[in-house]
Design goal:
alpha/beta; Spore Coat Polysaccharide Biosynthesis Protein SpsA, Chain A; 9-stranded mixed sheet; 9 strands
Length: 273
Amino acid sequence: MNPRISIIVPCYNQSEYLDECLQTVLDQAYQNWECIIVNDGSPDNTEEVAKKWTEKDSRFKYLLKANGGLSSARNAGIEIANGEWILPLDCDDRIGDQYLKLAEEKFNDGYTVIYCKADFFGTTEEFWKLADYNYDHLLLENLIFCSAFFKKEDWKATKGYDSNLIYGKEDWDFWLSILDEKKTVLCLDYLGFFYRRKEESMDVEINQNKAKKDFSLNYIYKKHLEKYLPKDMNAIENFVQQKNIRRSLNFYNQIVNKNTINKFLFKLINKTP
């Protein structure tokens, strides 16, 4: 019987957390899953730890690839996944033991993305307060963390996670790729995702680096420009000061200040009819 859920665990140089992460997979109340551990060319002992789990339970699978970054590792795992539904899980995070079961019960209800409530743990111990999902709000900022369920067929319909986003925001970009105003999203009333906070981590370093943040934000805004254009064509023209934007998207080749874009997008999403 093919697994209905494929859990994708990318790993790069964080083997010290891998056991804790994979134990939360093994503890799941729902049993019809596979877990693909993707070693993204890690220099530590990730392979040794991962193979211990493949020997413990055949539902754990191991994939070694050359280092290519988080998006590349997720895509490699999803490519060989047998499951109908995908759940990314970073190797230093954890999931609650009812997460798969509660999500699976909603798989036939027409949702494109299913996620849950979340907590921070590690250097920060607190509830992760995320705004309620709303598509127009999603255009302004990410509202869904990485460990949410989606169908493999939706991943196939896009180009997957974008490997050009080397400075983060790849989750936001992916949700923008598979969601639109007609797609529905469910947040389970269940605390089932636990995001590890560390003193030194990729997201902490990126948030402290304005140039890297601006690169990701501008890249995403430009890539998904067609999602913003229908909001207000005149506002777009005024913003880029190009009367011919409908005929030529030279905007893609411009370097645009992130704060200006944010103010502009906020105006679009919240403008009075």
